[in-house]
Amino acid sequence: MTPTLVRHHRYADSSATVDAGTRARDWAEIQERMLAPLYEAVYARLEVGAGTRMLSLGCGSGLALLIAASRGARVTGVDTDRDRLALARERLASEAGHGAGRTDHRARLVDSVPAAVPDGEAPYNLLTSFQPIGCAAGDSEGLAPALTSAVPLAVRGATVVLAGWGPPERCATAPVLRVAARLTESARAPRSGSGWRPALRDDLEEVAAQAGLKPDGSGRVSCPFGYADVDSAVRGLLSTGLFDTAVRATDRSQVEKEVAEALHPHLRPDGTVWMPNVFRYLVCVT
What we know:
Radius of gyration: 19 Å
Oligomer: single chain
Number of strands: 9
Largest sheet: 7 strands, mixed
Order of helices and strands: HHEHEHEEHEHHEEHHHEE
Shape: globular
Structural class: alpha/beta
Distance between the termini: 30 Å
């Protein structure tokens, strides 16, 4: 599966505040697919299949779960964003041919890390956190504690996969993400976790160390961001949450305008937007 250019309807008033449900759908329909090459590369390397019992932290709207389930894995997804989780439930139910609200028997969706493995089921042997860290200050906060909570649910020696942004010089989206920091700083707003910063070489290793995990290999994956037009690109990028502080510091219409301007170098003659990026993943064992 590769990023797909799909046209979407424009908002009647794109400067208006977008509700959480619409933003979650923008993530599901526009942005989440950009990480599909990362999911597939990891699953191929780990030979994810019928014997895999996966717990995915920050599962979003469920694309990574869906791909793993299609390979035969039993999956549990955790996400605190209930709108994204609802879309994941719809997606998994639709793929399995069930009615609304009924997911595949191999899939479970929850809004917090389970206290224990469900009765009658084996412990997990794969833990994943595919939400990339390393491009916003503080974006890894909370990940190590979540991993620490999840590790007791896994077998000894289980595999854990963490994901992060690659070097800025290999990520065409990096200058676009800097818009968030610039707007926030220009408005003299209090700093928070949404300001852009360059990815550091040991971001993933630091989280692994905090969670008591042992690194056991890593890899890099090309994940180009491709959009049907500038409007879709702006909506997709804002759905990530990386521009939230800038929106609060200024307003959504200003952020949309400046993000659109930053996308101009990546605009192709046919009106599509294309930004090559590299993401990194770290494989660990418990």
